[in-house]
C-alpha cells in the first residue's frame, strides 16, 4: 500500500524555468543509463531536480507520472552534491518495472556523488 502521507517536494528543490534547464544541458556533466540520461551542473546552493519525460518517449500519461514519482522519490533519498540535476527519460523507460527504475536512478546518483567525476 502506498504511503498515506507522501513527503513534499518543495518548489525550492525543483528546476522550473527553461533557462535553468538549458544551462544544465549546455555546461553540465552527462551520464547515461538504460532508462534515463542524467545531467548535473554543480554549484547551486542546494540540490535541485528537473524532470523531462517526453510524450514521444513515454506516450501514456500514467506511465509518465509514475516515472516522475519514482524519480522524485529516488532524488529525495539519494545523497546529493549541491547543484542542479536534470533527468531525461528515454523510450526504454516506458516498459521498465519499478525496481529496475529505482536501481538505475540509485546508480546514476551514486556516479555523481563519487569523487572521480568532479
Helix-strand layout with pairing:
Blueprint: H1 18-27, E1 29-32, E2 36-42, E3 47-52, H2 61-77, E4 83-89, H3 98-113
Parallel strand pairs: 3-4
Antiparallel strand pairs: 1-2, 2-4
Helix pairs in contact: 2-3
Describe this structure in words.
This protein is an alpha+beta fold and 118 residues long. It is 36% helix and 20% strand. It has helices at residues 18-27, 61-77, 98-113; strands spanning 29-32, 36-42, 47-52, 83-89. The protein has a four-stranded mixed beta sheet with strand order 1-2-4-3, with helices on both faces. α2 packs across α3. The radius of gyration is 14 Å and the shape is globular. The N and C termini lie far apart (39 Å). The mean pLDDT is 91.
User: Nearest-angstrom radius of gyration?
Assistant: 14 Å
Distance N to C terminus: 39 Å
Please count the helical segments: 3
The number of distinct β-strands equals 4
SS-derived structural category? alpha+beta
Features:
four-stranded mixed beta sheet; 36% helix; alpha+beta; 4 strands; 3 helices; 118 residues
In short:
With 118 residues, the protein is α+β, with helices and mostly antiparallel strands.
Amino acid at each position: 500500500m502506498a504511503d498515506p502521507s507522501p513527503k513534499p517536494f518543495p518548489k525550492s528543490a525543483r528546476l522550473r524555468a527553461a533557462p535553468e534547464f538549458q544551462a544544465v544541458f549546455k555546461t553540465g556533466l552527462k551520464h547515461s543509463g538504460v532508462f534515463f540520461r542524467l545531467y548535473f551542473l554543480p554549484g547551486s546552493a542546494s540540490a535541485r531536480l528537473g524532470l523531462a519525460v517526453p510524450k514521444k518517449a513515454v506516450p501514456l500519461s500514467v506511465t509518465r507520472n509514475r516515472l516522475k514519482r519514482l524519480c522524485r522519490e529516488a532524488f529525495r533519498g539519494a545523497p546529493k552534491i549541491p547543484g542542479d540535476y536534470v533527468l531525461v527519460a528515454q523510450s526504454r523507460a516506458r516498459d521498465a518495472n519499478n525496481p529496475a527504475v529505482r536501481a538505475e536512478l540509485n546508480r546514476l546518483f551514486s556516479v555523481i556523488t563519487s569523487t572521480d567525476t568532479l
